[in-house]
Design goal:
Blueprint lengths: L16 H39 L7 H20 L7 H19 L5 H6 L1
């Protein structure tokens, strides 16, 4: 079987059940290592922002930023506990992180300069 015949052309799924099982196992092992790191970084981000803006009074932090940070942290935490049983949760990690990056890059870092306008 050539490499072009390993994946279906439409859904990019493995045709061979053994390869599909190996890929699924390796993906689960990868997420077992990566998701706790992502969750701890989101906890550090959320906690640091809360301490800096609420405890040390360095300015005003909009409530939607705190809400998005804590929701993303909770969602990633749930995914880290359930991803071995529900492999469909692997597909939620990238959209969650992309949403968080979009919040910080497009809404919070927007300073009305030409470069910022093109980037957003």
């Amino acid at each position: 079987m050539s490499t072009g015949e390993l994946l279906s052309k439409f859904a990019l799924r493995f045709k061979d059940p053994d390869l599909s099982r190996i890929y699924s196992r390796e993906k689960t092992e990868f997420f077992s290592k990566a998701i706790p790191v992502v969750a701890s970084m989101l906890l550090l981000l959320s906690g640091t922002l809360e301490v800096l803006y609420r405890v040390m009074n360095l300015g005003e932090l909009p409530s939607y930023i705190s809400l998005v940070n804590w929701i993303m942290f909770a969602l990633i935490l749930v995914i880290s506990f359930l991803h071995t049983k529900l492999s469909i949760l692997h597909k939620m990690v990238c959209p969650c992180l992309t949403t968080l990056i979009f919040l910080y890059m497009s809404f919070l870092d927007y300073d009305y300069t030409v470069a910022s306008i093109y980037y957003s």
